Amino acid sequence: MAHVLIVDDEVDIRETLQYILEDYGDYQLSEAADGVAGLEQICASDTPLVVILDTLLPKLSGFGVLEAVASDARLASRDAYVMMTVNRERALANIPESMRQRVEIMSSPFNVDVLLTMVARAARRIQRTDDGLDDILNHMLDDR
Fold first, then answer.
1. What confidence tens digit (pLDDT) does each residue in 68-100 have?
2. Cβ–Cβ under 8 Å, residues 75 and 48
3. Is the CA virtual torsion 111, 106, 32, 73 positive or negative?
4. pTM score above 0.90
5. pLDDT lower than 70: segments of the chain
6. Helix (H) / strand (E) containing 80
7. Residue 50 φ/ψ region, left for φ over 0, alpha for ψ in the -120 to 50 degree band, beta for the rest
């Protein structure tokens, strides 16, 4: 079961996303109302996350969250992001280069089918990464 963190300052958006994801997927859900709280949860998590991240957030923008994550090698290679924006070109231009493979951009307002597809794809991506680490660790332990 993938853990999805919803980072958006609008309560209605967070509730709608939670409702959709609870109805159509098998996800553990948590939320944050601003970029700082979202970044704190990302940093504190022991497991890979799918982070649904708004671009315009109080305290720290979604781009600021990605910049902070990009500066930490462990975090930069662990989680997957679905960034919600009304301006796709601006988002593409502001995502740190090192994070571009880990971020999908979803237009806002969003389409439910697109949301579900992007979250499922991100969940598979972090699952493969997590399984790959487990395989490597198990192989190393078997060789002892």
1. 999 998 899 999 999 999 998 989 899 999 898
2. no
3. positive
4. no
5. 129-144
6. strand 80-85
7. beta
Element (H, E) at 119: helix 112-142
Q: How far apart are CA 82 and CA 1, in angstroms?
A: 17
Task: Enter the tokens of residue 106.
Answer: 């979803």
**What is each CA distance from 60 to 8, 17, 50, 73, in whole angstroms?**
11, 21, 19, 20
User: Tokens 């399984």 correspond to what residue?
Assistant: 131
Percent above pLDDT 70 for the chain: 89
Classify domain 2-142 at the CATH class level: alpha beta
Count CB neighbours of 76 within 10 A: 16
Tell me whether strands 27-32 and 49-54 are parallel, antiparallel or unpaired. unpaired
Crossing angle (nearest 10°) for helices 62-70 and 35-44: 30
Concatenate the DSSP letters of all residues of 5-48 into one string: EEE-S-HHHHHHHHHHHHHH--EEEEEESSHHHHHHHHHH-SS-
Cis amide prior to 109 (ω within 30 degrees): yes
